[in-house]
Design goal:
Helix content: 10-25%
Strand order of the largest sheet: 1-3-5
Order of helices and strands: HEEHEEEHE
CATH class of the domain at 74-145: Alpha Beta
Distance between the termini: 71 Å
Oligomer: single chain
CATH architecture of the domain at 74-145: Ribosomal Protein L15, Chain: K, domain 2
Structural class: alpha/beta
Radius of gyration: 36 Å
Largest sheet: 3 strands, parallel
Strand content: 5-15%
Length: about 150
């Protein structure tokens, strides 16, 4: 066996279909392109999204801002909701989820200062508003910001 007598297996290769080579071939005359029109001409391709001169859909719809990739979404909890806990308890993300104040522990939690607080707690969350910090500390509690 030598390189000059290597051949593909019988039936593994096929001759390409040669169109536009006379009427006897079955693909002559219009060469499978139909009659006239843009698609029958050479170079007659239509760009994706082209609608025949009508204003295309992607230009008819309005642009609507953008979504920043570094946005952090917070679950919001007001300090008035923290009265559901016993005085002196430690409030963290897992305890908020167990009470049903936060849906998931995957989102960051921010404590807001809406309402009043009467009990003292040790609250740990990702973020606090300034009024929430002031009200928790004024009630005798402590805060801890987690990363």
């Amino acid at each position: 066996m030598e390189l000059n007598n290597l051949r593909p297996s019988v039936g593994s290769t096929k001759n390409r279909k040669r169109i536009g080579r006379g009427t006897g071939s079955g693909h002559g005359k219009t060469a499978t392109k139909g009659h006239k029109g843009q698609k029958a001409r050479s170079g007659g391709s239509i760009k994706a999204g082209f609608e025949g001169g009508q204003m295309p859909l992607q230009r008819r719809l309005p642009k609507r801002g953008f979504t920043p990739l570094d946005r952090v979404e917070f679950s919001l909890v007001n300090i008035s909701q923290l009265d559901a806990f016993e005085p002196g308890s430690v409030i963290d993300v897992t305890s908020l989820v167990s009470k049903g104040l936060v849906k998931s522990d995957r989102l960051a939690v921010k404590i807001l200062g809406n309402g009043d607080i009467t009990k003292s707690f040790k609250v740990s969350a990702n973020k606090f508003s300034q009024t929430a910090k002031d009200k928790i500390i004024a009630a005798g509690g402590s805060i801890e910001e987690i990363a």
